[in-house]
Amino acid sequence: MALQAGIVGLPNVGKSTLFNALTAAGALAANYPFATIEPNTGIVSVPDPRLAEINRIIETQKILPATVEILDIAGLVRGASKGEGLGNQFLGHIRAVDAILQVVRCFENADITHVDGDIDPLRDIDTIETELIYADLASVEKRLERIRKLAKSGDAEAKKSVEVGDRLIELLSEGRPARAGDWDEAEAPFVREMQLLTSKPVLYVCNVDEDGLTEDNAFVTAVREKAAADGAGVVVICAQIESEISEIEDPEERAAFLDDLGLPEPGLAVLARATYELLGLQTYFTAGPKEIRAWTIREGTKAPQAAGVIHSDFEKGFIRAEVYTIPDLIACGGEAGLKSAGKLRLEGKEYVVQDGDVMHFRFNV
Predict the structure, then answer these.
(1) Each residue's pLDDT tens digit, 231-265
(2) CA distance 68 to 270
(3) What is the pLDDT of residues 130-173, one digit of tens each?
(4) N or C end: fewer C-beta atoms under 10 angstroms in the chain?
(5) How far is the C-alpha of 203 from the C-alpha of 296, rounded, in Å?
(6) Long-range pairs for 53-59 at CB < 8 Å and ≥24 separation?
(7) Spatial separation of the C-alpha atoms in residues 86 and 81, rounded to whole Å
């Protein structure tokens, strides 16, 4: 599943510190702009308690969680859409990802500089969104130049594209992102084809200090209000603390550290799951004595395509799938009990896989 989320933000908001904690990849983190030039890429595990629930009933040699791919993208500055700073590179890297994790600084610290001098997360969000809107506006206008010529020749599809394009220009000119538009089934393909930066779903990641972990500060409250108005999500995290947590290898020591902080789990676990959801992903499981594994699919995937995630031969030779739920597995005490209770279903090619299904595939190649 080659979907990616990009960590985006102004310089010195904690992007690379967060990325290091997420991936343990050792990405350069420094107190000056453009410490990240080429995007660093990391594969992040998505914590899922359902794996342990399955393992309570089915003993196995190893457990493999789902993963999500995350890029740490260079810090943006005002004027990026006109090529300022690393603007063109930055925008190109965002264009390549499927969702945006926008890190906003929500803490005061005189020792860590801010490109605008003071801390204002709403201003920071507006700076990035404005640059993405400017870039999209230029992209749409350039594309419409060619399409308008086709529309004048009587091409019906081109005429429809021009109508949608003009609405996009109007929307962007008002300072609103493309995802704020109300696109019907006929219009949506044109908008998707444009690969607009502001079409991508956004999750705001509020980077706070330790004091901001247990109670929202004024900065976080402002971001939550902004996110609610935009229909976006918010995750509150302390990148520095998460970096320290990620270095603790002993499970008991880590649990004690989290307990001292008053946290039920690392913020990174919350962020990984939120990113997974932001990308429109869901999980099904396979379970046996060799491994219990979470497999990643898009929402709405049918059984043969889900089987193809394991191996293309599974999809080509798909016959049917044996499917059960984790609650039924626990209630029945195992797969033998599932069969006796009639809880082991046989599903065909049109079955839409549900999040949390446990599946065995029958295939013939």
Answers:
(1) 899 999 999 898 888 888 888 998 999 999 888 88
(2) 13
(3) 989 998 998 898 888 888 877 777 777 778 888 888 999 999 99
(4) C
(5) 20
(6) 53/326, 53/330, 54/285, 54/287, 54/292, 54/326, 54/329, 54/358, 55/292, 56/330, 57/329, 57/330, 57/333, 57/334, 58/287, 58/288, 58/289, 58/292, 58/329, 58/334, 58/335, 59/289
(7) 10
